[in-house]
């Protein structure tokens, strides 16, 4: 079992593994974390060639970067390390707000470098666009980090097409990270054509619909009590919306059985099939799910398979918003 490579961006290209590993859930949001299991998962990912690791300062807060830094300490040269700034939190977890001020960019980068225990970040994203600060100012400060050698490549997350263009005019943007899966396809209307025109790579987070497309979630009780997906913060997992969405998952499961793979593998294969400029970062904190996800790269989809999946889960068919509060999403 191993995985191939893809390149994000062209003006400032970054070669990464065809699939990355989202590390957020190892520390927060998706139930209780277990540091030894998380470190073992990261170690196994690197062994299998999954070298593109994704974290952010807000995860924990702060503790996920420390965890990732600990896990890669002896293998830094193998890793393409991505982290993010912009969702400002206090140490007790309180959300302060979105911060894109240049002075904060510099301070956040230095703090991330220290927590990660590295001398540079391979891909540094603005986690959310600060609508009170011109994006040119934020990206200008990020570009200074590149000039200083603290950051190698720049990225944006959940940015609008207009702000992607404005940012890219200041400094080449290597990748856009945004939610993208069979369950979330709104970026296909304007954002995907824009980044393809500018030749910016796409890094889909939650490519398994926050785990729903794996088929492992059958009711709210499938999730731990402390799992944020049980709250109104994720409307797709609540009430009638959950029932409607699980009926879509059932159709994916039927198609997966025909292909001889797991439903999550089929859903990931669909994302991978959207282009060689697409590098999903499914998150997990367990080795067995990591290995299952990696095997999705070996699932080949025909034109008929793709058509069947899109018929099973039509664009826009999913019930509920991505988040209970969509105000932080740039539009």
Automatic annotation (TrEMBL):
<dbReference type="InterPro" id="IPR023210">
    <property type="entry name" value="NADP_OxRdtase_dom"/>
</dbReference>
<keyword id="KW-0560">Oxidoreductase</keyword>
<protein>
    <submittedName>
        <fullName>Aldo/keto reductase</fullName>
    </submittedName>
</protein>
<dbReference type="InterPro" id="IPR050791">
    <property type="entry name" value="Aldo-Keto_reductase"/>
</dbReference>
<dbReference type="Pfam" id="PF00248">
    <property type="entry name" value="Aldo_ket_red"/>
</dbReference>
<dbReference type="InterPro" id="IPR036812">
    <property type="entry name" value="NAD(P)_OxRdtase_dom_sf"/>
</dbReference>
<feature type="domain" description="NADP-dependent oxidoreductase">
    <location>
        <begin position="19"/>
        <end position="312"/>
    </location>
</feature>
């Amino acid at each position: 079992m191993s995985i191939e490579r893809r390149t994000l961006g062209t003006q400032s290209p970054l070669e990464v593994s065809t699939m990355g590993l989202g590390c957020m859930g190892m520390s927060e949001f998706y139930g209780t974390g277990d540091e030894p299991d998380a470190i073992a998962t990261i170690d196994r990912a690197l062994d299998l060639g999954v070298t593109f690791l994704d974290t952010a300062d807000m995860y924990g807060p702060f503790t996920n970067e420390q965890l990732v830094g600990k896990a890669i300490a002896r293998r830094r040269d193998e890793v393409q390390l991505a982290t993010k700034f912009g969702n400002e939190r206090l140490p007790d977890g309180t959300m302060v707000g979105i911060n894109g001020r240049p002075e904060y960019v510099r301070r956040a980068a230095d703090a991330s470098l220290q927590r990660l225990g590295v001398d540079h970040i391979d891909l540094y994203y603005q986690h959310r666009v600060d609508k009170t600060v011109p994006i040119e100012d934020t990206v200008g400060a990020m570009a200074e980090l590149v000039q200083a050698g603290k950051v190698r490549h720049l990225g944006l997350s959940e940015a609008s097409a207009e702000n992607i263009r404005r940012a890219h005019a200041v400094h080449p943007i290597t990748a856009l990270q945004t939610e993208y899966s069979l369950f979330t396809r709104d970026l296909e209307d304007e954002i995907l054509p824009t980044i393809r025109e500018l030749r910016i790579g796409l890094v889909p987070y939650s490519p398994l619909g926050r785990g729903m497309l794996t088929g492992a979630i059958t009711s709210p009780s499938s999730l731990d009590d402390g799992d944020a997906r049980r709250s109104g913060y994720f409307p797709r997992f609540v009430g009638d919306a959950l029932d409607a969405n699980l009926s879509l998952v059932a159709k994916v499961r039927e198609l997966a059985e025909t292909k001889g793979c797991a439903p999550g593998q089929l859903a990931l294969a669909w994302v991978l099939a959207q282009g060689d400029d697409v590098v999903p970062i499914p998150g997990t904190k367990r080795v067995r799910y990591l290995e299952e996800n990696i095997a999705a790269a070996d699932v080949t989809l025909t034109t008929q398979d793709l058509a069947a999946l899109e018929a099973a889960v039509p664009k826009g068919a999913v019930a509920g918003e991505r988040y209970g509060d969509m105000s932080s999403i740039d539009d």
